[in-house]
Known about the structure:
2 copies of one chain form a homodimer. Chain A is α/β, with parallel strands linked by helices. Chain A has 2 domains: 11-277, Queuine tRNA-ribosyltransferase-like (TIM Barrel), CATH 3.20.20.105; 284-369, no CATH class. Chain A is built from 16 helices and 16 strands. Chain A has helices at 53-58, 68-73, 77-82, 86-90, 102-108, 134-144, 162-182, 200-216, 233-245, 261-269, 279-285, 317-321, 324-332, 336-363, 366-374, 377-381; strands at residues 11-16, 23-29, 32-36, 38-40, 64-67, 96-99, 113-115, 118-122, 129-132, 148-150, 189-194, 221-224, 253-255, 274-276, 288-291, 294-297. The first copy, chain A, has an 8-stranded parallel beta sheet. The first copy, chain A, has a 3-stranded antiparallel beta sheet with strand order 1-2-3. Chain A has a 3-stranded antiparallel beta sheet with strand order 7-8-9. In chain A, α8 runs parallel beside α9 and α10 runs parallel beside α14 (336-363). The radius of gyration of chain A is 20 Å and the shape is globular. The model of chain A is unreliable at 1-5 (pLDDT under 50). The A-B interface holds A 45-47, 49-55, 74-75, 79, 82-83, 89-91, 304-305, 307, 317, 321-323, 325-326, 328-330, 332-333, 335-337, 339-341 and B 45-47, 49-55, 74-75, 79, 82-83, 89-91, 304-305, 307, 317, 321-323, 325-326, 328-330, 332-333, 335-337, 339-341.
Amino acid sequence: MDALSKSQFPFTVEADDTHSSARAGRLLTPHGPIETPVFMPVGTRATVKGLTPTQLEDLGAHIILSNTYHLFLRPGPDLIEKAGGLHRFMAWDHPILTDSGGFQLFSLADTLKVDDDGVNFASILDGSKHRWSPEDNMRVQNQLGADIVMQLDQCTPYPCDKSLVETAVKRSASWAKRCRDAQQNPHQALFAIIQGGVFGDLRLQSVSRLLEIDAQNRFEGFALGGYSVGEPHETMFETLGATAAALPYERPRYLMGVGNPSTLLAAIAEGIDLFDCVLPTRTARMGTAFTSEGKLNVRNARFADDLSPLDPHCDCPSCTRYTRAYIRHLILSKEMLASVLLSIHNLRFLIALMARARQAILEGTFASFLRAWNSTPASQDF
Amino acid sequence: MDALSKSQFPFTVEADDTHSSARAGRLLTPHGPIETPVFMPVGTRATVKGLTPTQLEDLGAHIILSNTYHLFLRPGPDLIEKAGGLHRFMAWDHPILTDSGGFQLFSLADTLKVDDDGVNFASILDGSKHRWSPEDNMRVQNQLGADIVMQLDQCTPYPCDKSLVETAVKRSASWAKRCRDAQQNPHQALFAIIQGGVFGDLRLQSVSRLLEIDAQNRFEGFALGGYSVGEPHETMFETLGATAAALPYERPRYLMGVGNPSTLLAAIAEGIDLFDCVLPTRTARMGTAFTSEGKLNVRNARFADDLSPLDPHCDCPSCTRYTRAYIRHLILSKEMLASVLLSIHNLRFLIALMARARQAILEGTFASFLRAWNSTPASQDF
């Protein structure tokens, strides 16, 4: 472990892959351990759409993500704090990570104004005006009470002029320091966020700036932000590995907003530990299942009398109890249960995939596991 | 028990109330016993909206209702039969009752044509033309494979000319006989349906006609149809008791389509055993909770920071885990989980109310139980 590791959030690398940078780890939190690599289901508004916490537990979710931007606007952090924090408010007694809202601010708000001291933004709900300094954002995340909080950052779009990306890198690093100084709750881990867009030198500059701060006052983890914002898949991988490699070995690494199964496995090989994405649940609500055969549009007429499960290799209740024909019937009938059953399945698919990857790393077979995955038709479909 | 009770569906009255016609009973079915009085959650399209069978089991549902009319149109009885029947199709391994579709035909279909031999109707989905004789309807319900099937009947609206109601009574009785002759599956109980609208003499005429048929070929139960179609609450009770009293003692009595808690208890006092209604789940989807304080519109601003449960006297997971403030947040955010949690609660409210009524009947305290209920503000609110 690092020298400064008297953290309440010790992260241990339990095994390293010999052929890649993949590793299996374990992060302790006040609400229990998280085994990595891990996929975090997204519960933007304090609910993973349509699912109860019991259903999430049953499908093996270790940690879920919620969003500071949305919860700040509704129902507001004062209520959540009064309710005993986000865990009690949403009845999820396992780890939670809250995103700072940096991504939402820079992707949703067209009325946004940013300066070195913070951001002015308008509510998407009622147009009301707000301002967040890094300290304001930390205070809100402290009220929410997640186990892991993210720094306020400036996320740049793709494509984006390099000088603007560099400004965002510097500003995000300055905000990281201010968040680190402001975030004093020992029960919350703070992750810094690396920006730099598609520019390898700026990614490394971002890492250096954050490590300087880290040397004084430790971050419990690092996230790679500003990826998956529209750039080609290959472009992300041009800089992802070198960026991850520049980070401290025994600190968790979180790639934000990526949920494509093939991309997850490739990112694990580059040394990433945590992932989140709305993809599996959003895709589910559109009637599509992630399966070992690839993506399945269950609405398709060819499933009308298909009495096989969504995925014969899946152990989730949607697969062990229901047929494609039944779920298609629910989709056509616009029944809520379609979204529920497909969300359970798609989340289980990614969570089980992460568990299998972890097992392979622990057993020293990750290279062949990855080769096997990449030789399936499914891997090309994602 | 009746003379002819070699039924696969024995119904035993376990206790009679001394002050009213209320009784506690037990109906055996191939998928397990049903303790009465009982409320049956409605799963029109082979799903109780938004809930999994596990959630229904957990809230104590003994039996659910599904609808032949809707399932006939989509996904079609051939698919459900091929899937192994409705129980397997929807993964509900407890009793199911299918309504024949009589009510839907006469309330939904404006292109309907009825004659003594059956009904012509157009699909609400695609306008396609169909015809059902009583035998056709039995064949479809046989394919669906519910434990309890309902005869095809002609339901009259309110208000309705008495001569038209009398025609419907005669026709429904003739169809009851044809359904009885056609329905030969020993694993399915057939319930006859009493019509007669608000006319006491026609209700009794309907009972007589059905009992004549019953003397030859036994119905496993009797339902009171054509109530709760728009007539005032009091008007139903003018004829309900006498109609129920004219029915064989040891046969279950089912009042169709009623779900108001106060009405349920009053109907139990008149000797009714089974109920179904979309009210608790439909009300839930509109953001309203059934509680011991009455109906609660959870959307109301006064619940914005109310950290108490929907109903402090309720044992359902929605009440033991969540606050009104959280559920209101879900409603305002248009989150599916709002409907899920409120449906669980409202169903549990009615199911628990039925269980308490049953217990009171068994203990000989139903009169005081009913008095206590009727003295609460809640009873007036329903």
